[in-house]
Design brief:
Layout: H1 7-10, E1 16-19, E2 22-36, E3 41-45, E4 62-75, E5 78-90, E6 98-101, E7 117-122, E8 126-131, H2 132-139, H3 143-150, E9 164-169, E10 174-180, E11 186-194, E12 200-206, H4 211-214, E13 223-224
Parallel strand pairs: 7-13
Antiparallel strand pairs: 1-2, 2-4, 3-8, 4-5, 5-12, 6-11, 7-11, 8-10, 9-10, 11-12
Amino acid sequence: MVYAPDLNSLLVDGLRQTRMWTEFIVESRPLAPAVLPTGRIVASEGLPSAEDAPFAATIPPGTYPMHAWVTVIRKRGKEFDRRNAALELRVSDVPTVSWEMALTEDESIDRLEGDDYIGFSVDSGCATIADADTCEALRRWDFDRWESVYIPRPLPRKPVPGYVTAVVDPATGANLSVVGSGWGDGSYPTFIGRDADGGITRFVIDFMVLLDVMRPKGFGSRLFGR
């Protein structure tokens, strides 16, 4: 059984869990809608590389809502920290009845064991879901420009940690939004939600912030692919 979180239970605005004197509250925060010129979706760290291939599953080009799922951590009644638990590209408001790991054309879950997963690596502390053409346009920026736009000083903490959005390609209006990647650097899977007819409802990056709080099981540490 590969890593398969219960995202329908996790992605609930206002969800609360308490451990000792610590309270965890999940909040849904709307971000700038994503403009997708091609509908080929990439999940990656905030500075996508040429190795970040789009997922095999595609959606029609268009503009789609984006949401960050933020975990507010309170101790003894006061906010102690907040971290992004998930980043969602919302394709449809039809109820999601099933989830699958998002894979590129060259990836397969056949060799995964236990709670292993396929995901992308982060060493910049931020992540994004964007159109493949948008990522390609961003790669034409030099690093100094990317850093000045996407790593402001100080980084925003509220309401969404590390949230920055910008139009990357003025010709198409394509934009790219980044958020802080959970606890920071690591490797993170993306999941595709589907409705009862098999249509895509969501792409969600799981930052695994709530593994020990909301979920009864741990997960494997091995990352495959990408």
